[in-house]
Every structure is written in structure tokens, then in C-alpha cells.
Specification:
Blueprint (H helix, E strand, L loop, with lengths): L10 E2 L15 E7 L6 H14 L7 E7 L6 H6 L6 E5 L6 H11 L4 E5 L10 H8 L5 E5 L6 E2 L5 H17 L11 E5 H9 L8 H12 L3 E5 L1 E2 L11 H13 L5 H17 L1 H4 L5 E3 L5 H17 L6 E2 L8 E2 L7 H4 L3 H7 L1 H27 L4 H13 L1 H7 L10 H14 L3 H16 L3 H21 L1 H35 L6 E2 L9 H5 L11 H6 L13 H13 L4 H16 L4 E3 L6 E3 L23 H17 L4 H15 L9 E3 L5 H4 L12 E4 L9 H8 L12 E5 L2 E6 L5 H12 L7 H13 L2 E6 L5 H12 L4 E3 L2 E5 L5
Parallel strand pairs: 2-3, 2-5, 3-4, 6-9, 7-10, 14-20, 18-21
Antiparallel strand pairs: 1-4, 5-8, 6-8, 11-17, 12-13, 15-16, 19-20, 21-23, 22-23
């Protein structure tokens, strides 16, 4: 490395003796960072020169490099006035911090050893002898320390500064550098080449530069020793109060990885892909509706709105009585997704739940792809292009696109790759307790993002662990002990944080035991081989609808070209244990998704499937079994990444190109079209203008006609638009069936009046209403504590209006775009 700094923001002072310094490599370089040190620098240079000269040949040839950090006083002149050719000056045009000054000074140094000392000489130069002795013993760095036995202290700092320094030291030792008690003492001796390499890749400009450099030494495996020294506080410290706040910030920056340009491009492309997928709603979320979301967009916006409302009014965030009057909604037993709805509360309050939901799904999908990319790059393939392709498939596979219509809890999965990565760290057995605690925190957060996704991820990891144990038993045996110990610690941490919410979910008001999704909830073999509905080139809505529950539950549809490609990858890379394990995981997940009884293609025969042994287990009994095929998405993405990585290393150009063409042809049918959207129905002015307030008193509910339910939940949108100012019966959420039956159902079991109104809406035929019917209606309205009934314009609104007229005993009134029956009239 040259002794002349050529960076744009630094230079050696023209005319100084430094420009004519001998090109010979000195034995010792002394680097002194300086900022406005005109009072202290002169005596320091005198002491250094005198001590090094008096030692004769002890230190060999030497140089002193003063790194001026944009001083505004006479600091530079003090150096340039001296005529010693061994004294050099490098400067920065502006003040940027001690770290930047040291980067300049160390970069300009040439010595075989480099001593870094502060300009105040709080540690006398005579202590260099101790450091050099330790360095000669084979260490790459000798760090002067005030905290090891043998260190002595002269004048001390102010007690407040002592306290802050002690707290900072604990923070450093706990987060960045282990085994070094005092990283901040400004007297350190390094191997020259190694310290120049460390400073060359450093990023920090502030006081935490010492931590960054020592962390680099530790991670490179270069031994560092602490040496006791004598230290005395010198007045005139350059540490300002704000520096104590910037120091933790720099430690955080130190812990965060530096993205390469290719990584930033990958993240930008993932975001662009997510925006393109949601383009129909993303640019106007308040007035656009995802057509294939059925009623789920209304439901999710309600979850975001009610969470924000509960937080603002300091109510229990796990419960709401705004739907399902009078029983209410157990939000923890529903997919309220507190992990996003809580942090996005400011967005919900400022711009509405539609914007918050749109941001959550779009940014969450891009973050999920980026998380898979990071995992594959760190654990699977070194090629960024291969990792990008694998991550794109993992996050944008056909079943993920299907769920993107309506289920953020299956789209926002950025914690799942991080959880997998932490489990792999546990297998290494290096920092089991630390990694286990972090894993427990991650799992707890994922509980509030989506419990079913966490359950499926755990099932996928269990399948992989079993397959990898068979493929690589020696590695599995070595990893088993630390992994099991770590999982036990992680479970304890996680349960400590989520035990109360889970108790509320399974034992609180309106909790239920399980959900039964019926016999049509499993995949078929045809569903795995068929192209998805949203495939840009090969999609067929009718065919996909015949093989799935609805457009939001197309949980397979990987297409036969991709499955053939996965088979070819498995055969071609069979010798690699990870390939065998991934292939077995995908095959097992696909098989489980076929349900407890598997229909054999082209026959009428059904055979028992492996899911039959799991279907009755706690938690598993509520899973839509076809969703198990979601496990295949990241696994197929990993196989794809491995294949592309192998192709890029092929010696033959023809092999590379032919293989990549085959890959592209297999993936081409999977490219999704943007999700379908449509203009959103206008909310009646009755709700937007607040006219409803005149008809609903405190403690009463407003009854939409007919009641909101999973198939027709537009009333939830009216409620959120009205600022959640009124409660209503019915709704779209999960709850127990009732009357001692705690089986879960979607929506509220219909009483007599709700069933009557639903029948009229579906048939368009007004019902015969007699005295008994009116009595049933009065009981139901009293049960709902109804203040008014409201009928908005809709299909069959004429028969509905006639039916309610008869039930109430008087005609409704047209108010702000709706028919209203105020139950207070005539009371």
C-alpha cells in the first residue's frame, strides 16, 4: 500500500517534508488522529520524537503520520513548520470524525508495525515497550487496556463520563467484540499489513472505529492481546455529549451487513415485482378492490382498523365487540396479524386501513423474497443470480400468488427464512444460548404474523431434518445435541412472550377448538400438475376453479414443466445430500397435501394417505390440508438455485446456454399476470357523512339488511369508513358454533331473522310475515340491542325492503342513500 493518500477528500499538504519522505519501508509508523489540537499536538510530537530517537535502534526506522480531520485552528501549521522528514501530514477538507481520520492516517502509513495513539498522550509513549513485547509473541494486535490486572490510573474522568464509558463498554462486549475488556483506550500497536487491511474495509467515521477494527481482527482469526498500561485523563477531550448517542447507532450499523450493489438491485427488482402484481390496487387502494379476494379484503381492512382503534383507545387488542354483537370477536383466534397491524397503526390512522393493508402486502411480499434471497445466498449458492431466481420462485410461486389476493399471513413470510437460518446456526453449536434466544424472539413475532404459516414451516423443517438425517447421518448426529438444546431454550423464550395471547386464543371469550374445512380441502395430483389461473400464458380459470376451493386457495398448480425440471435437477445433482434432502421434502409435502385419502389418477380408487395420521392432532386438525403444498415453493426455489449455480460453473458454454434455456422454458408458464381488481362500490353517504349517529344510541347496534357474513361483508367497509363508530351483529370472522359446541365456524350462526333476510336476498322473494314472525324478529332485535336497521341499494332490495317493512310494522325512511328503520320511533 502506498504511503500517499489519493482519496478525493484527503491530501498531503503541498510543500511539507512529507511529500519528500523516503520511500523505504519504516519499521514503525505512529498514527496520531488530530482535530483542533493546536494546544496539545506540539508537546505530543515532541514527546514522541524524543522517545523514539532516544531508543536508538530499538524501534528501527520510524515515521509519525498526523491525520488531521478538518481542523479549523493551527493544527496543520504545527506539523508543516517542523522540518523532520519522518513527520508526515494527511488531511481531510472537513471534519468527519476520529474513525475517518484514522482511516486516512493508517492508509497513509507504511510501517511494518503501526502504533495508534491519541493526541493527548493519555498513555505515555514509554508503554510502547510492553505492547511491542506482546506483539512479538505472535499476536496481530496489542491493545492498551485500563481494565486488565496490572493497569494503573492517574487522573480520572468525571464520574458521569466514567459511568457512560462503563455502560458503553458493556454494550460493546455484549454485541460486537468479545474477550476484550477495553476497546477504547487510544494506544494500540498492530501488525502493519493487517491493520491497513482492516481499516481499508472499515465503514464507521466515529469513535466506534476501534470496535470495528478489532471486530475485523477477531473475525479474521488474527490474535489480539490486551496489555495493561498506565493511563491518565487529559483535559480538552473532543468527545461531545451527542457522541454518546451516536456510539450505539454506530454499533447497530456495525452489526448490519453492507448490501452490495447486486443485492440492492435484487431488492429493487423484488419490490418492482410485488408492485406489478398488486398494480390494480396499489396505486389507489382506497377505491380499488381485488376481485378474487372474495370478501377477505373487507375483513383484513377491518382487522387493521380495529387494531388501531383498540390501541388508540387503550382497549384490549385481543378482543372487539364491533362485530358479532353481543358476543364480540376473539381477535387472537382470528388472523388479526398484530405483527403488522400494530406497527402500521400510524399509517392506518393517517391514511386508512386500505392503504395500510396495501403497504403490508406489497412491501411484505418483497421483503419475503429478499429474505429467501439472503438465506439462499448465505447457505446454498454463492451466485447472486442463482439466489435471485430461487427466491423469486419461493415468493412468487403460483400458490403464493393465489394467497396474495386475500391472505397477507401467507404472503408476508420474511421471518420464516430468518427462523430457518437461526435453526441452522444452532446446528453448528457455537453460540447455542444466544442463537436460541434470538430464535425464540423470532418465533414469538411470527406467531403475531401468522401461526399457521409457522406451523407449516415447522412441518417443512421437520421433513427436511428427517430426510437430511437419512442422507447425511454423521452430520445429523453432530447437530442433534446443540439443535435440541437450542430448540428447548427457544421454546421457553417464545412461550414466555406468547402464553397469555395463546391462552386468550384457545380459552378466552369466543374461542374455539378447531375448524373443519370439509372433504374438498385437499389437493389432487392434477392440481399439482396443472397451470395456475393467474399464469400469464397458460392460465385457465375454469380448470383451476374445478381443482381448488376458491381463487384464494389454489395451493398447488406448480405445473408439469416445473415438476419435470425439479426431477431432472434431483437426478442430475443426486450425489449432493442437500439435493436429496430437498427433493424428499418437496415430495413428502406434496404427498401430505393430497389429504387423508388420495385419489389415484385415472381410476376411481382412493387409498389412505399419510395425512390421515396427522389430521386429528391438535392444531393440525384446523389446517387446510392443501396448504401443506406451500412448503414446496421455497424447496423448489432452492433446487432451482442449486441448478442455476451448477450451470454457471459448467465448462462447456453450450451446456450452460442449453441448461438455462430449459430452465426458462419451465419457468415461463409460472409468470403471473397482475391480480385482478375492480372499482370499489361507493359507501353510502349515510356512513360517510355521519348520518347514522342520529339513529344509534350508546350501547346499541346498527343492523345491516341482510346481516354481514363471509359471503357478503361489505358492511365491514361501511363500518371502517364510519370510523368504527357503531357496532353491528353478524360479520366475517371465526367463532365457536355455540350452545356448548366449540367447533369453529366462519361468521355467526344465523338466528331466525338473519336466516330470513338471507333467504330473501338469495331468492328475491319476499317472505310471508305473520304475528309469530314479527315476535321472532322483536326477540332477535332485542338480542342485538338494535337501534336501527339499514338497507343499502343492492340486488333484490325491493323484496328485502318489503320484508323489513312487515317485520318492523312500518315503512322505512330514505336517509342519505339508504333505507332506515329507526327502532326508537314510536317507542
Amino acid at each position: 500500500m502506498s504511503g500517499t493518500d489519493t482519496s478525493e477528500d484527503s491530501h498531503q499538504v503541498p510543500g511539507s517534508r512529507a511529500t519528500t519522505a523516503s520511500p523505504a519501508v519504516p519499521d514503525l509508523s505512529v498514527v496520531v488522529p488530530a482535530y483542533n489540537e493546536e494546544r496539545r499536538l506540539g508537546p505530543t510530537l515532541d514527546a514522541l520524537t524524543r522517545q523514539l530517537s532516544a531508543a536508538g535502534d530499538r524501534w528501527g526506522s520510524w515515521e509519525i503520520v498526523v491525520a488531521d480531520d478538518g481542523s479549523t485552528d493551527a493544527t496543520r501549521e504545527i506539523v508543516t513548520r517542523r522540518r523532520d522528514p519522518r513527520l508526515r501530514l494527511v488531511t481531510s477538507p472537513r471534519n468527519r470524525g476520529k474513525g475517518h481520520a484514522l482511516r486516512l492516517g493508517v492508509g497513509a502509513s507504511r510501517g511494518r508495525r503501526v502504533l495508534i495513539t491519541d493526541a493527548d498522550l493519555a498513555v505515555p509513549v514509554g508503554e510502547l515497550e510492553r505492547l511491542d513485547t506482546v506483539l512479538a509473541e505472535g499476536n496481530a494486535a496489542a491493545v492498551g487496556s485500563r481494565a486488565v490486572p496490572g493497569a494503573t490510573l492517574g487522573d480520572r474522568r468525571h464520574p458521569v463520563r466514567e459511568l457512560l464509558a462503563g455502560g458503553g463498554n458493556l454494550l460493546i462486549r455484549g454485541t460486537a467484540v468479545r474477550g476484550i475488556r477495553d476497546t477504547q483506550c487510544g494506544f494500540k500497536l498492530f501488525d502493519g499489513e493487517k491493520v491497513r487491511a482492516a481499516f481499508a474495509v472499515s465503514r464507521l467515521d466515529g469513535w466506534a472505529i476501534d470496535v470495528e477494527v478489532l471486530r475485523h481482527f477477531q473475525r479474521a482469526g488474527w490474535p489480539v492481546a490486551e496489555v495493561p498500561v498506565h493511563w491518565s485523563h487529559r483535559p480538552g477531550s473532543k468527545i461531545r455529549p451527542l457522541d454518546y448517542l451516536r456510539f450505539p447507532r454506530d454499533l447497530i450499523r456495525l452489526r448490519l451487513p453492507v448490501p452490495r450493489p447486486a443485492d440492492a438491485v435484487a431488492a429493487a427488482l423484488f419490490l418492482a415485482m410485488a408492485v406489478a402484481l398488486y398494480a390494480g390496487r396499489f396505486f389507489d387502494p382506497a377505491h380499488r378492490y381485488l376481485t378474487d379476494s372474495l370478501q377477505d379484503q373487507n375483513q383484513w381492512e377491518w382487522f387493521f382498523a380495529v387494531t388501531a382503534d383498540n390501541l388508540v383507545h387503550l382497549r384490549n387488542p385481543l378482543f372487539s365487540d364491533l362485530q358479532g354483537v353481543p358476543d364480540g370477536v376473539n381477535l387472537m383466534a382470528n388472523t388479526a396479524m398484530f405483527g403488522l397491524s400494530v406497527p402500521l397503526t400510524p399509517v392506518t390512522l393517517l391514511w386508512g386501513p386500505a392503504v395500510a393493508l396495501s403497504l403490508a402486502t406489497t412491501l411484505g411480499l418483497a421483503a419475503t423474497a429478499a429474505a429467501w434471497y439472503r438465506l439462499m445466498l448465505r447457505r446454498l449458492v454463492p451466485q447472486r443470480g442463482a439466489a435471485f431466481a430461487g427466491a423469486a420462485l419461493a415468493a412468487f410461486a403460483p400458490p403464493m400468488v393465489s394467497h396474495a389476493n386475500a391472505h397477507p399471513n401467507f404472503v408476508v413470510l420474511f421471518m420464516i427464512p430468518a427462523i430457518i437460518e437461526r435453526c441452522l446456526r444452532l446446528c453448528a453449536g457455537t453460540r447455542v444460548t444466544r442463537d436460541a434466544v434470538i430464535l425464540g424472539l423470532m418465533a414469538a413475532y411470527q406467531v403475531f404474523l401468522g401461526e399457521e404459516a409457522l406451523l407449516l414451516a415447522a412441518l417443512g423443517m421437520l421433513l427436511f431434518a428427517a430426510a437430511h438425517s437419512a442422507a447425511h447421518p454423521r452430520v445429523a448426529r453432530a447437530a442433534a445435541r446443540p439443535l435440541l438444546r437450542g430448540l428447548a431454550i427457544a421454546a421457553a423464550v417464545c412461550l414466555t412472550l406468547v402464553v397469555y395471547p395463546l391462552a386468550w386464543q384457545f380459552s378466552g371469550p369466543q374461542s374455539y377448538t378447531h375448524l373443519d374445512h370439509g372433504p374438498g380441502a385437499a389437493n389432487s395430483v392434477r392440481a399439482l400438475l396443472t397451470f395456475a389461473e393467474r399464469s400469464l400464458l397458460a392460465g385457465d380459470a375454469d380448470r383451476a376453479a374445478a381443482l381448488s376451493l376458491n381463487p384464494t386457495e389454489q395451493n398447488a398448480f406448480y405445473g408439469w414443466p416445473l415438476l419435470l425440471l425439479a426431477l431432472a435437477i434431483t437426478v442430475g445433482l443426486w450425489r449432493r445430500p442437500v439435493v436429496r434432502s430437498l427433493a424428499a421434502t418437496a415430495a413428502a409435502a406434496a404427498l401430505l397435501s393430497l389429504g387423508p385419502r388420495i385419489h389415484v389418477p385415472l381410476t376411481g380408487v382412493k387409498i389412505p394417505g399419510p395425512w390421515a395420521s396427522l389430521a386429528g392432532l391438535p392444531l393440525m386438525e384446523s389446517v387446510i390440508v392443501s396448504r401443506v403444498a406451500l412448503v414446496c415453493a421455497p424447496v423448489l426455489g432452492m433446487l432451482l438455485a442449486l441448478a442455476i449455480g451448477r450451470l454457471t460453473q459448467a465448462s462447456s458454454r453450450g451446456t450452460r446456454y442449453a441448461g438455462l434455456v430449459v430452465v426458462c422454458l419451465a419457468l415461463l408458464p409460472l409468470i403471473p399476470a397482475p391480480l385482478r381488481s375492480e372499482p370499489r362500490a361507493e359507501v353510502p353517504a349515510f356512513f360517510t357523512d355521519g348520518a347514522w349517529k342520529a339513529h344509534v344510541r350508546p350501547g346499541e347496534s346498527l343492523v345491516p339488511v341482510p346481516l354481514p357474513e363471509p359471503a357478503a361483508a361489505e358492511a365491514l367497509h361501511w363500518q371502517t369508513t364510519a370510523g368504527l363508530g357503531f357496532r353491528m351483529p353478524g360479520g366475517y370472522f371465526n367463532r365457536p358454533y355455540g350452545d356448548g359446541d366449540r367447533s369453529g365456524v366462519y361468521g355467526v350462526p344465523l338466528n331466525w331473522t338473519a336466516s330470513l333476510l338471507k333467504d330473501v336476498r338469495e331468492t328475491g322473494v319476499a317472505q310471508v310475515i305473520d304475528a309469530r314472525a314479527r315476535e321472532e324478529a322483536r326477540r332477535d332485535l332485542a338480542y342485538w340491542r338494535a337501534g336501527a336497521l339499514v338497507l343499502a341499494p343492492q340486488p333484490h332490495d325491493g323484496p328485502l325492503r318489503a320484508t323489513v317493512d312487515k317485520l318492523v310494522g312500518r315503512p322505512g325512511t330514505w336517509v342519505a342513500g339508504v333505507w332506515v328503520w329507526d327502532l326508537h320511533e314510536g317507542s
